[in-house]
Amino acid sequence: MSKRDDLIEKYAADIKDKFGESADMELLTKVAIGLGPSIYNLDASKVSGGDEKELETVKNNYLVKKLGLADSPALMDAVKSVLDTYGSSNKNKHRVVVYYMLCKHFKKASIY
Q1: Which among 100, 107, 106 has a CA at the least distance from the CA of 29?
Q2: Which of 46-50, 66-70, 107-111 has the lowest mean pLDDT?
Q3: Could you tell me the CA-to-CA distances from 23 to 13, 71, 97, 112 in Å, in that order?
Q4: Alpha helices in 43-94 (DSSP H)
Q5: How far, in Å, are 65, 78, 104, 108 from residue 5 at the CA level?
Q6: What is the dihedral of CA 53, 69, 47, 101, to 10 degrees?
Q7: 89: pLDDT strictly greater than 90
Q8: CA distance 91 to 88
Q9: Whole-number Å distance between alpha carbons of 22 and 2
Q10: Which stretch of 5-9, 65-69, 90-94, 106-110 has the lowest confidence by average pLDDT?
Q11: End-to-end Cα distance, the chain
């Protein structure tokens, strides 16, 4: 298995443990590939739930630019909802998992 495959398995386990659902492995893989080399960088591969600037980046760069959603308060609500479900005590919120859950929430899997 490649390093990416190992990471994707870890992300799938996170989705099962934190969100109580089985991951769509095809979509999860596409989200991971879409994030490119950032998944291997310790800092870039995580989302800081307590950093408003980081949350704005997720909203603007992923939801608006990548998924093509119109900017609205509902976007930030969705980001915060995913992070709350992930767990505020969990310091390792993987960007791939957050993006995957947002993609599913907004039913935008067709983008990939």
Answers
A1: 100
A2: 46-50
A3: 8, 27, 10, 15
A4: 52-57, 73-86
A5: 26, 28, 21, 23
A6: 160
A7: no
A8: 7
A9: 21
A10: 90-94
A11: 23
Domains and CATH numbers, the chain: 3-111 (1.10.238.120)
What's the pTM value of the predicted model, to 2 decimals?
Answer: 0.95
* Separation CA 37–CA 39 (nearest Å): 5
Q: φ and ψ at 46, to 5 degrees?
A: -115, 155
Q: Which residues contact 92 (CB under 8 A, 6 or more apart)?
A: 46
**What is the token pair recorded at 60?**
């603007």
Could you tell me the two tokens for 110?
A: 């067709």
